């Protein structure tokens, strides 16, 4: 279906046919949800052996009674797990509660109110700003928006953020104090940063203000769907460029074990960790060490975790294939959209024709299929092209996803044809 070359008569006939199909779908009163990347119950079941794994033995290998207060930076055994996931030394890791987002928020607030490693607090700048690769993760943008930190869109390509744009903005504006990065299987595009991109990011500390930090949200470090995809090590790259203070790395087991009761990790230089720990001392007497011990016993070594993630992949891969098959079969020979084919992570990024995303999302909602709101993958929820839609295949059953994607493809066609008809009139 190449609607650019269709006549008005052909478009009108097609719109009538699609509308009739759409009305029939609406009569089914569907209630399907593909809004967020939540693990399915089948995935969560993979970790149910966490329940009872301690068998009333609450002492860690170093003798720590995990039932009690203390242990600000987490159990050593939990920190070792985070170190394996991020490929960093254990001494550079803090193991915390269940949410890496909480750690990221804590880190941004630390930079904003107090500054890192003795540098100027961001709040003392006239207009502090973050660079935001787009499309990106909406919750990153919410943190900045809540604190009044400005955001600048940075286009993404197949190698990661447009580094020419990143470097240009940094050279022109000394009040850029951070950049959000989801370096492996980016949310939502699925892109994994190339070696050149990681090396150029590691060099940013040489041209930025000293308080600048890269927020390296490595949420999908072990979430391969098939073969393992290697991400260049940002810590090694910063060591080579003498910019080790410029990076804060984050990870968690939220999409590895039980999403609501995992363990989150932050890794950073000793100077950055000192800044984070100073504020943590005022916030908490220590994390949930019992849960950290459960995870350490569940994953006795990193190979155990990797085998566990292969089980996740066996559940997720057919769902991603379902999404991509619907897109290819329904839209592959058309000019109605473009999409990524990720090798891991939790999302498929779809771009409609400019100006159609909001209409597609609304049509789908009216037909009983909930999608992430159009614009959510951009700062301030403003997609300048009104084109990006994030598809989250993980939570629904395969049968539900199959139905949802049939509706989605229909809505893309209907929205596109109606737009073209309007433009032709």
From TrEMBL:
Keywords: Aminotransferase, Transferase. The keyword Transferase applies. It holds the Pfam family Asp_aminotransf. The keyword Transferase applies. InterPro entries: AspAT_Ic, PyrdxlP-dep_Trfase, PyrdxlP-dep_Trfase_major, PyrdxlP-dep_Trfase_small. One of its GO terms (molecular function) is transaminase activity. PANTHER family: AMINOTRANSFERASE, PUTATIVE-RELATED, ASPARTATE AMINOTRANSFERASE. This is Aminotransferase class I/II-fold pyridoxal phosphate-dependent enzyme. It comes from Microbulbifer epialgicus.
